[in-house]
Amino acid sequence: MALIQETDFGTPARPSEHLVTLSIDGRTLQAAEGTSVMRAAAEAGIAIPKLCATDSLEPFGSCRLCLVEIDGRRGTPASCTTPVAEGMTVRTQTDRLAALRKGVMELYISDHPLDCLTCPANGGCELQDMAGVVGLRDVRYGFKGANHLDQPKDQSNPYFTFDPSKCIVCSRCVRACAETQGTFALTIDGRGFASKVAAGAGDFMNSECVSCGACVQACPTATLMEKSVIAQGQPEHSVITTCAYCGVGCSFKAEMQGDRVVRMVPLKDGGANEGHSCVKGRFAWGYATHKDRMTKPMIRERVTDPWREVSWDEAIAYSARQFKDIQRRHGRGAIGGITSSRCTNEEVYAVQKMIRAAFGNNNVDTCARVCHSPTGYGLKQTFGTSAGTQDFKSVAKADVILLIGANPTDGHPVFASRLKKRLRQGAQLLVVDPRRIDLVRGPHVRAAAHLPLRPGTNVAMINALAHVIVTEGLVDQPFVKERCDPRDFIRWENFIADLRHAPETVEAVTGVPAEDVRRAARLYAGAANGAIYYGLGVTEHSQGSTMVMAMANLAMATGNIGRDGVGVNPLRGQNNVQGSCDMGSFPHEFTGYRHVSDEATRRLFEIDWGIGLDGEPGLRIPNMFDAAIEGSFKGLFVQGEDIAQSDPNTHHVSAALEALELLVVQDLFLNETATFAHVFLPGTSFLEKDGTFTNAERRINRVRPVMAPRSGKQEWQVVSELAGALGYPMSWPNAAGIMDEIARLTPTFQGVSFAKLDRLGSVQWPCNEASPEGTPIMHRDGFVRGKGRFMITEFVPTEERASRFFPLILTTGRILSQYNVGAQTRRTDNVQWHPEDLLEIHPHDAEERGIRDGDSVSLASRVGATSLRAVISERMPQGVVYTTFHHPITGANVVTTDYSDWATNCPEYKVTAVQVTRSNHPSDWQRLRRETDPLRRRVLAPDTAAE
Ligand code: SF4
Ligand code: SF4
Ligand code: SF4
Ligand code: FES
């Protein structure tokens, strides 16, 4: 294995159908119109020296190293800023050019430390390379003149350093921060000799920097450098794999020394990220080798006993024996399992197969239940496919973007960078969110409208938008006529035209001025391309499914489906939430969303799996909890999901887990759920996994192991062995064999194989005979279900209401540096940005309660209470408070309720009536958590203590 070197063509591609013919160094070649001479040369294998140019950034033309001679042109133009022209004759290597380049390099090196041998960039420094390329031997100016060599390093960022003594002021970092990331944290201060890179007025850590690392990647010297490279040295080989955090699904090169990761570098060819990343994927991978990792199987008969490390054989035999015993005493349906959206498709597939074939029931559900299950339901009803319609690239063609209940700069940062780029090009943004998220007003970004609706009124709002479109004659009639079911449309049109949906009527419910709603509706409907993007602020409501269908109605009514720049696009939460749903994790569906009661489908699986299967849907997660408390559900297998922290109404979840006779947890750490477990099966981190993740754009990406499983086994192997011990042998030669089985049994995956993924990089399903290389944009010529189906979306207010005792509404979300329940990110330096969950509260609400910024407050709902510190923030509308749920000590879900989506049971995390009061004491809940913190309560027998 070698280090994968991606060619840097110097300037971005300029796709064009028009080719021009030119000659470079005597070679005749063709290049697309608009391409730079530098790129045209690089595409033909001719390297022109460069320093300030790189192909992820627009050309800048500052270093003067890339000069060329062009017949008929005066002087020596910079090849990075000169576009190709028909008949152009270019020379890249002449004596004059060599002398000029040497002169440029002499100037740079005269003001540069001469510590190449001990420099961390040694072997990976473009300045060093260029000194070699131009044949620099002497520096006529000497090294004693005025220089920048004694400037102090900025070490404030936990992941990278800034050493200005090595800076050549090429501005690549400044441009990367602006063009690629869209944060504009860096500037060049001063002029001429005094010019220098500045991160605001202070250091990086106290600037606007979000630590995405784009500047570090762009820097051609050791000025901006990963601390991991400084500590470990340059990597020697790399493996392409996929980030295991969010549903963007960024591709990375894991750059390695042996089996140690040195750094993660986003892959330029990555379909989802095209060379960009956020702080989590690029830097927060240290959890994989954290000392808290559990690497040995453990069992205990009672949860009050200490854990006992055992062999794999014993752990598997014990689990199988206990599961079988429960079934013997309480029936086949008394056990079940939960699959994880953090795991690979192959691992998820193995667990659901074990449950259906070895447990003999359909009691399988997935953590998608608590996030995007309404997406699956709503899009299937209206379009026929339980997935988003576009690829991420599509946003570059959108003219108006309707962003609902999503905060991409925190939740889906790499998509946010694409979105911001499009907004800087002139697209308009409409934000529907109670909270004033960063995209409402940020650097070089300003939303055309922010509709700060009251939590729980999404459906009223979208119906009002649709009402305007229908009653003001903005419906795309030809599209509806050609593509949608006419009877459903007429029914919907009559429904939505009713005055009860008019913005003026709905204003009292949503709190948003009618005129703002009308303006937003006209803007979206009038766009050449209108795109909807949404997140958990849509789905995690009692009407989550209704809202998804309402958005689909809106897109169909305006003809915004089936081409680039449009669509209805869920921003999926976890890395493989799309995949875990695709893999048959729901109790009513086999892979590819086919109902278990469908005879033909069931027969297909029965023949392939060689066993009879249950045609009745099994229990959903909330049903499992209820049945456990009621006493009919006794055994649970949980794959990589901390349900005790992530699911709503923590007291209820804890009671259910306590009632189980057997809880088997397969995970990396002894998490909150493991507090209740009897068997712990150590899992694998993404750096050890072999398989695939499917991101929010249906893109199947390869996850390749860069190190051996620390537990000694892949998770799917453990599951296969458990199924075998239960009496149903499951065996595959490798993860590729599991994908072959998935492809054999799933029409949308028909053409997928590891070999194809290795060849193409990634594939977006459906991938079959009709689309052998996948389908970036869905529903191009017709909906998957045939005619698009308009659904009636009556607004039904949630039963969770503010009251005299609980007058505020709590809504929850994520922050950039942390992820989900924080199990991974809390074990990295990301804690430096968000060491605790905070409660954002409007100044008026705070003043009424005598709360000052930073005060400890009690947060109480009808079901529980916790305490945390308050931050006074005008981002919140009055009457609404907000927090994250990344830290178990806060246990934000102790206050969230059992209300859930009517169709899918997705919990209503986004609406909880609460009271907030000043308090200097931890809640009873927190006192209990401190006493029972699993990290502290990890009672291992003394002779088996883990590392
Ligand atoms: S820090 Fe690096 S990228 Fe930025 S100006 Fe200096 S040398 Fe160029
Ligand atoms: S790390 Fe990212 S946000 Fe921070 S300065 Fe560099 S490019 Fe900008
Ligand atoms: S945007 Fe998501 S997938 Fe990409 S690097 Fe960040 S966390 Fe990973
Ligand atoms: S690479 Fe062209 S001017 Fe710097």
UniProtKB/TrEMBL annotation:
Residues 18-96 form the 2Fe-2S ferredoxin-type domain. This is Formate dehydrogenase subunit alpha. GO terms for molecular function: 2 iron, 2 sulfur cluster binding; 4 iron, 4 sulfur cluster binding; formate dehydrogenase (NAD+) activity; metal ion binding; molybdopterin cofactor binding; NADH dehydrogenase activity. Signal peptide: none annotated. GO terms for biological process: formate metabolic process; respiratory electron transport chain. Residues 96-135 form the 4Fe-4S His(Cys)3-ligated-type domain. It comes from Telmatospirillum siberiense. Residues 158-189, 200-229 form the 4Fe-4S ferredoxin-type domain. Residues 236-292 form the 4Fe-4S Mo/W bis-MGD-type domain. The keyword Transport does not apply. Keywords: 2Fe-2S, 4Fe-4S, Iron, Iron-sulfur, Metal-binding, Oxidoreductase, Repeat. Belongs to the complex I 75 kDa subunit family. InterPro entries: 2Fe-2S_ferredoxin-like_sf, 2Fe-2S_ferredoxin-type, 4Fe4S_Fe-S-bd, 4Fe4S_Fe_S_CS, Asp_de-COase-like_dom_sf, Formate_Dh-H_N, Formate_DH_asu, MoPterin_dinucl-bd_dom. One of its GO terms (cellular component) is membrane. CDD domains: fer2, MopB_CT_Fdh-Nap-like, MopB_Formate-Dh-H.
